[in-house]
Amino acid sequence: MRLMPSPSEATPALELHGIDRRCGITQANDKIDLIVRRGTVHAIVGENGAGKSTLMKIAYGLMRADAGTIAINGEAIARTRHRPADALARGVGMVHQHFMLVGSLTVAENLILGHEPTRHGVLDIARAEREIAALAERYGIVVDVRARTELLSVGEQQRVEILRILWLGASILILDEPTAVLTPGEVKRLFGLLKSLVAEGKTVVLVTHKLDEVHAIADRVTVLRKGKVVAELPGDSPPEDIARAMVGRPVLLDVPKAAATAGEVVLAVSGLSVAGRAREAVSEMSFEVRAGEIFGFAGIEGNGQSELIEALAGLRPATAGSVRLRGDDVTRASVGERQQRGLGLVSEDRHRRGLALEMTITENLHLGRLAEVSRPLRLDRAAMRARTAQAIAEYTIAPADPDAVVASLSGGNQQKIVLARELSRPSLRCLLCAQPTRGVDIGAIEIIYQRLLAARSAGVAIVLVSAELSELRALADRVAVLHRGRIVEIVAGASLANPDELERIGGLMTGARA
Amino acid sequence: MEGILTFAFLAQVLRITVPYALAALGGTLSERAGVVALALEGMLLGGAFATTIVAHATGSVALGALAGVAGGALVAATYGLVVLRFAADQVVASVATNLLLLGLTPFLSGLAFGSSASSPPIPGFGPDVLLEPLFWTALVLVMGVAWLLQRTAFGLRLRAVGDHPDAAASVGIPVIRVRWVAVLLSGALAGLGGAWLALSAAGFTDEMSGGRGYIALAAVIMGKWRPAAAALACLFFGFAEALQLNLQAAGGGVPRELVQMLPYVLTIVALTGFIGRSRAPNALGRPR
Amino acid sequence: MTFGLSESMRREVYATALALLVAMAAGSVLILIWGVSPARVYGTLLAETWGSEYGFGQVLFKATPLIFTGLAVAVAYRAGLLTVGAEGQMAAGAFATAIVAAALPADTSAAVALPLALCAGMGTGAVVGALPGWLRARFGAHEVITTIMLNFVVAALVMWAGRTGQFVTETTHTREIVAGAHLASLGLGSSAANLSFVLALIFAAGVAWFFGRTRTGFEWRLVGASASTAEASGIKVRRVIVMAMALSGALAGAVGANTVLGDKHYFEEGLARGAGFMGIAVALLGRGGPFGVVLSALLFGTLAHGGFVVNALVPRELVEVLQAVIVLTLLATSAAIRRAVTNAGGAKEGA
């Protein structure tokens, strides 16, 4: 057994120098230096595509750096042989943005995966369950260790992920975009847990793009832009400074919104019920959306918003109630029929619903729009190319190659294609829009917000489902708070600027009494 | 229909079910690890042929059975090479593997026995299937595979790899290696099933697997990818085949071709009645 | 032949060439095991296929069913379906072709007899193909297993129908078709090559036009690329699945034009056996595109007739083995090349 140098206060928990990593044609990490001090919360911020996740995956051993050095608790690691097993052995644990939990296994089974305790060759699950439950209690993490992880809520799954790395003895916790799926209340609870861990001497590295969180909890902030470190600031720096460093120019975090001029009712939903996987996802919901209005839905993932949008789009049957589009009953109409009546869809899962990844930009821009470019016996390719060129210019889609395969585009550009397609529908009357800026960088977010508000000014009725309350504040005229498939309350979009109101709404989203 | 409830008929059902069940056990392991098990047909055939060669050369049933295991594993290794090492499409590779064996076995048979259609007789089973040690081995294997999957560390890793390979990799599990073991085991089990086929028929005939590998996979789907349930589903198909054989022998009004169709039609019906697709292992068929 | 071939196409050509070389090497090993000289075998094969008028004609004759079944598999694959049912659809179609062509009045003109017989074959194939398509669309039953099972079922039904009256007594073939339903020979030596080869080429062009230029072809391709996206864009995915499988079955059913109308003039059990399965290999080698399908059908047709020609030297099954080896090595080489490209080139990683 080697003699390890005893870690002192001054030895950084994590030290990366000169890290390079190429991913395809992009230089994802470019000579990055990072020093994370023990016992602190260190935030790594940057736009989508800045290189944050790549850097942390390298630190954790999931990816190999092309060049540079890594040291954990003062001990240098061989760059070419660094694996998650080594990182874990040295006390580094990582909670990924997309959870690494095996759904069909229980909490306990997931936690012991890779380090299974056995007795005479048989898995000793009972002992594992006991020990894990004890650990969970110590940290105040509430979870049923016998539950199958696929049945847990998103917040619970995240707690399981954190529990896992604690159980594996992590003293350095890397969290990649942890709050993307949490309500304000759950974020508070998470930060409380992190603070208590840090008080015990553990180190937390937080990868995020949410600047208000950085302000709330980070001791230091490292800003990445296009693969390089561009700034290192104290955690309580003003968000505008951090945002400017992230983007390289002043960022308009609030897009100017014209006053609401709502017209006639375009979408009328009455008593709508939709079945979900285990129980009813939407229960007797009624609401109306007018022309020129953005009607938002706020709620934690899993409270019926996905099923609601699918039912309104015609992708899922309603078990009760009715949906009327400009007076016509479309409750039993097909997707195509609704589209003909002026309905557009920006789905929350663009890879599954919005795009055909292996097809080109031109082809994707015409999904569901083929009737407009069809001649008898063949497609009008010239017309398709003309429209594509126009869309690429209008939305600054990159690369500007109409034959580029969509799979190679960034998330932001992919989403721009979906929006360009849906917003340019002839006689678009109502747009269903779910999580429009998920996985999209700030530059593209600006364009998307501008386009949605432009559609609003042009009289389109928009249903906007978003997990980001700030987004609803920026765009929505009215916001319906969703819990377990019912509308708990409808508030004005502007009221979300008020922090107390924000907290109250967060409570409603988790089921507190109105 | 008088013969149905006799002990002889039930023994016949068991005798017929064993190769299906062994193949289905192999299929369960492979698919739970995320690898499509359509090549069971080729593994059965390979096992049957290997058994015939060795049993003919040595005169020993036991050695023949071992050869069957090796033969099936060899076929699985070929399949594994294409889909695990090279990450090619698993469905097409399975069909190609089966076609390879369909062509290779008569060729080798002609080489070894001078006839591509059938082999000379080999020592086989006695009249009472319950006295065959291989039968009880198969029974033990059903429980063994279920135990392996649910109660061992390897089984846990196998299930993880088939459900969420990225998660398994993130805790340091060698995904491809686990899948190799699963595929080789599936070949060994199916190969043993092929050994049973050859020993039961006391020889090898061209294309003797007769679609059993595919039917075994249907049984896996019916059993929702659980080994014991899949083996039980095989009993259903074994019953169908036994019924078909007896009806043919009995003559009667039913045309023999329609009777021959029975297992295949039942498979189609079974696949439509069981919406097991939604419960398939998540990473099934996706090369990591 | 590299005029303007893109980087990716050139890679595909390398992969195919490599696969063929490996297959030839494997074949040589097996030939040596059998005890014959590979050079002699390959030499004889080439001389008697492309080296003689009769041989070339036979190559075309053997390639024709493979074009039909290769197109059948390719069409289904474009819509995201893997069908192994061409074998049964082919048998059912050829059987129907023969029955109808024999049942017509003896003086029926070609202008009436040929289209009727062809429609009977393609229509029957379409029905046999649509069934697993419907089972997949409605119940999610995987088409690989259902089509394989249906092959067995169709074989049994054809034998039953034959034995109970459709076959000439004591034989396993149907009655002679009427003169009007004879498809003219191409006149290559005394080979069986007939006009159905031209028909196959026309179908290939038709499939290319369908997927490349029409709205429906685009929609089918979309279903194959992402059925969930297709559904969200207003396409009735279930209907597309059934129609694609029906078209696939119809193409396979056209094989009767070659074997029945163009050659034997009756249906015999075992006609063009294996062409259905080989269609998968043909479609794979031809990269699922109609032009590629024709080329690889010619290759496999060469092997098929070649196997017959060298039968005195090596057993016929060797050719089947060779074909399977080609598929396996092609799968391996394409996948390997594809992976090398993504590792070096354009993978998008989450940053």
What does this structure look like?
The complex is a heterotrimer of chains A (514), B (288) and C (351). By secondary structure, chain A is an alpha/beta fold. Chain A contains 17 helices and 24 strands. Chain A folds into 2 domains: 14-247, Rossmann fold (3-Layer(aba) Sandwich), CATH 3.40.50.300; 265-355 and 425-510, 3-Layer(aba) Sandwich (Rossmann fold), CATH 3.40.50. Helix content of chain A is 33%, strand content 26%. In chain A, the strands form 6 sheets. In chain A, strands 6-9-10-3-11-12 form a 6-stranded mixed sheet, sandwiched between helices. In chain A, strands 18-21-22-15-23-24 form a 6-stranded mixed sheet, sandwiched between helices. The longest helix of chain A has 16 residues, at 184-199. By secondary structure, chain B is an all-alpha fold. Chain B is built from 12 helices and no strands. Chain B is globular. The termini of chain B are far apart. Chain C is built from 14 helices and no strands. Chain C has helices at residues 7-34, 38-49, 53-78, 86-103, 110-139, 143-166, 196-213, 215-225, 227-232, 237-253, 255-264, 275-285, 290-309, 317-344. The longest helix of chain C is centred in the middle third of the chain and has 30 residues, at 110-139. At the B-C interface, helix 3, helix 4, helix 9, helix 11 and helix 12 of B face helix 1, helix 5, helix 6, helix 12 and helix 14 of C.
Task: Work out the helix count of chain B.
Answer: 12
Q: Could you state the oligomeric state of the chains shown?
A: heterotrimer
**How many strands, what sense, and barrel or not for the largest sheet of chain C?**
none
Count of extended strands of chain B: 0
DSSP E strands of chain C, number: 0
Major protein interface = B-C, 46 and 47 residues
What's the structural domain tally of chain C? 1
Q: Tell me the helix content of chain C.
A: over 70%
In percent, how much strand structure appears in the residues of chain C?
under 5%
What's the Cα radius of gyration of chain B?
18 Å
Order of helices and strands of chain B: HHHHHHHHHHHH
Separation of the first and last Cα atoms of chain C: 42 Å
| Mean pLDDT across all amino acids of chain B | 88
Share of residues in strands of chain B: under 5%
TL;DR of this structure?
Chain A is α/β, with parallel strands linked by helices and 514 residues long.
Task: Give a topology summary.
The complex is a heterotrimer of chains A (514), B (288) and C (351).
Chain A: E1 14-23, E2 26-36, E3 41-45, H1 52-60, E4 67-72, E5 75-77, H2 84-89, E6 92-95, H3 107-112, E7 118-119, E8 122-123, H4 125-138, H5 154-167, E9 172-176, H6 184-199, E10 203-208, H7 211-217, E11 220-225, E12 228-234, H8 239-247, E13 265-275, E14 280-290, E15 294-298, H9 305-313, E16 320-325, E17 328-329, H10 335-340, E18 343-346, H11 350-354, H12 361-365, E19 374-375, E20 378-379, H13 381-395, H14 411-423, E21 430-434, H15 442-457, E22 461-466, H16 469-475, E23 478-483, E24 486-492, H17 499-510
Chain B: H1 7-32, H2 40-58, H3 61-85, H4 90-113, H5 133-151, H6 153-163, H7 165-170, H8 175-201, H9 212-222, H10 227-250, H11 256-260, H12 262-273
Helix pairs in contact in B: 1-2, 1-5, 1-8, 1-9, 1-10, 2-3, 2-4, 2-8, 2-9, 3-4, 3-8, 5-6, 6-8, 9-10, 9-12, 10-12
Chain C: H1 7-34, H2 38-49, H3 53-78, H4 86-103, H5 110-139, H6 143-166, H7 196-213, H8 215-225, H9 227-232, H10 237-253, H11 255-264, H12 275-285, H13 290-309, H14 317-344
Helix pairs in contact in C: 1-14, 2-13, 3-7, 3-10, 3-11, 3-12, 3-13, 4-5, 4-6, 4-10, 4-11, 4-12, 5-6, 5-10, 5-11, 7-8, 7-13, 12-13, 12-14, 13-14
